[in-house]
Amino acid sequence: MNKQTVVVIGGGAAGLMAAGQAATAGSRVIILEKMKRPGRKICISGKGRCNLTNSAPVEEFIEHFGKNGRFLRQAFSRFFAPELVDFFERNGLPVSLERGGRYFPTNGKAPDIVKVFLAWLSNLHVEIQDNNPVKTLSVENNTITGVITKRGEISCDAVILATGGASYPATGSTGDGYKLVETLGHTIVPIRPALVPLEIHGGIHPALAGLELRNIEAILFINGKKKRQLFGELHFKKFGVSGPTILTLSGDAVDGLRAGKKVELLIDLKAALNRQKLDARLIRDFEKRHKEPFADVLRGLLPAQMVPLCLEQTQIPADKVAGGISKKERRTLLNWLKGLRLEVTRHRSFKEAIVTAGGVNLKEVNPRTMESKIVSGLYLAGELLDLNGNTGGYNLQAAFSTGWLAGWSVGEKGKSL
């Protein structure tokens, strides 16, 4: 009996996992990668360390994807974080659990993840064609029959489309997959950057660029109404803000901006203290250091880089002695510390977005197999789908899980041919 031929388009997280799973089931598998080598986005993720997945339980994991998260339930029931960790460790790459439930390779080297995949695929005799972009898919009687590439046509029994989204285009994720599936009749939910830094009106005070804050509360307002708030880290950039809290809030911010709404961030710099406790601390500090200049006292409350901004926005004289600070001035400082307000004017581009929001409409994909409901023999996996989660390893796990399920489903179908 002849083996079925499966073509996987895209050599990222979803594509590599799908190819191996299809080959394990006995299919002849060809990976088409338009870049010079596969896995480029994996290599740069997590600042070169690659946050593979998260230890959160399934229900909590799904919540990190919002309303579309339930689509992932079937894929996660077949291949989830424990199976992923076991996969890497069985293939010689130890994995460690770190703060926030995040899993990383123990050696901190993201490229080693790609090495594991390449060795695994080589043992399974998967053919990888680098630098061979796909032009179109061949379809007859609403069924996949082949793939037309830069080098010619490849006849096949099934295609797993795992081209990624449009984020980090330098790694090869340039949105090609959306165009391919649209020509086949699929609907694309409008794509936009997600997990992306935000630009602030007028930029950030020059002294703040590069400053990273921990234990702050970031609250997002859309048209004056509180949308969402998060506790954690914030990073100041010349143009605005980034960091885990901002990236997670950015999805709602991007949608607000694109709808023409007013988007603001309120930063609580002293989130660990309520207003009453913080006011009591200010009173103690001013009494204890009553002869010292206000600016010096501020350095005990804030990172040195933030003092100029505080002085500028509270308009309390830097050289005014702490003992001379009035109740009104103390109240002004309290309000500033608990509510630094930043007006968001823009979001950064796909070049800086970690993932892509939007993509193939999930109603057109079978969540039990990842096969298209529109074209037989076409399977879709990874960031191409209308799925995007928070930072913390959630998106990569979704790519691995949907890729695994697509590969397994193709393999099982091939056994019955």
* Beta-strand residue fraction: 15-25%
Name the CATH architecture of the largest domain: 3-Layer(bba) Sandwich
The first-level CATH class of the largest domain is given as: Alpha Beta
- Briefly note the structural class of the backbone: alpha+beta
DSSP strand tally: 19
The CATH superfamily of the largest domain is known as FAD/NAD(P)-binding domain
**Ends apart, CA distance between termini:** 9 Å
Task: Explain the layout of strands and helices.
Layout: E1 5-9, H1 13-24, E2 28-32, H2 40-44, E3 53-54, H3 58-63, H4 73-78, H5 81-90, E4 95-98, E5 102-105, H6 111-123, E6 127-129, E7 134-140, E8 143-149, E9 152-155, E10 158-161, H7 176-183, E11 188-194, E12 198-200, E13 212-222, E14 225-236, E15 240-242, H8 244-258, E16 263-268, H9 275-288, H10 294-298, H11 307-314, H12 327-338, E17 340-347, E18 355-360, E19 378-380, H13 394-415
Parallel strand pairs: 1-2, 1-10, 2-6, 10-19
Antiparallel strand pairs: 3-5, 4-5, 7-8, 8-9, 11-18, 12-15, 12-17, 13-14, 13-16, 14-15, 16-17
